[in-house]
């Protein structure tokens, strides 16, 4: 289950339960307002490489649990220049492999 995935570049996810009418699991995502949305930034090449590596590690953690993020976009990612950390802040479409 996605709620079991822990990674610094992913929001903390809490399983709420199954929707009563449709076959959908309901999750609560903690929102971290630190940093700025990626499309608003002009990052240097070293920060872009660091960001890409962090996102790749986060996706690897998700894939190991049997899930795939279907809608990862630049406007789903926040970047904190204080600690050079990327965070996937929106998990709009997630499905099991």
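-> sequence recovered:
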């Amino acid at each position: 289950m996605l709620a079991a995935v822990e990674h610094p570049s992913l929001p903390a996810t809490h399983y709420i339960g199954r929707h009563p009418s449709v076959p959908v699991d309901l999750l609560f995502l903690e929102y971290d307002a630190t940093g700025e949305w990626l499309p608003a930034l002009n990052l240097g090449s070293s920060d872009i490489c660091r960001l890409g590596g962090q996102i790749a590690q986060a996706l690897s953690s998700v894939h190991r649990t049997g899930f795939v993020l279907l809608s990862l976009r630049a406007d789903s990612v926040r970047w904190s220049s204080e600690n050079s950390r990327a965070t996937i802040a929106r998990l709009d479409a997630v499905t099991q492999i």
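Residues 3 and 67 are 11 Å apart (CA to CA).
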